[in-house]
Design brief:
The protein is an all-alpha fold. It is built from 3 helices and no strands.
Length: 114
């Protein structure tokens, strides 16, 4: 039994198996214009730079504030959140008012060595 001749042509006879894949990116061959951008996706510069914790709001009195972490009773935190909501303030403002009213009129000596 003889083999029948194949119809059509062999696409890989003269070229490699993946030669139909072409680099369609503009610019230098092998290098994309903007690394990290794929297709039509444009990543704004401000989104690339946003890493880590926020540095603050940029308010003029930012030197008067510092970050601190406290452990608070859940019930009191919920009350403070509710108070902030109903008074249309943020939690930072409510806590600042509460500490201010607690410390009002207190005579406090400085810590030695500081």
């Amino acid at each position: 039994m003889t083999k029948k001749p194949r119809l059509g042509r062999d696409p890989f006879k003269d070229e490699g198996p993946l030669s139909f894949i072409r680099d369609t990116r503009a610019g230098k061959p092998g290098k994309p214009d903007k690394p990290g951008n794929i297709g039509n996706t444009i990543i704004p510069d401000r989104a690339r730079k946003a890493k880590g914790r926020p540095k603050g709001t940029g308010a003029p009195d930012r030197d008067a504030w510092t970050r601190a972490t406290f452990i608070v009773r859940r019930a009191r935190l919920e009350k403070m959140k509710a108070l902030a909501y109903w008074e249309r303030q943020n939690l930072k403002q409510v806590l600042d008012r509460a500490l201010e009213s607690y410390l009002k009129g207190k005579a406090i000596k400085p810590i030695p060595g500081e």
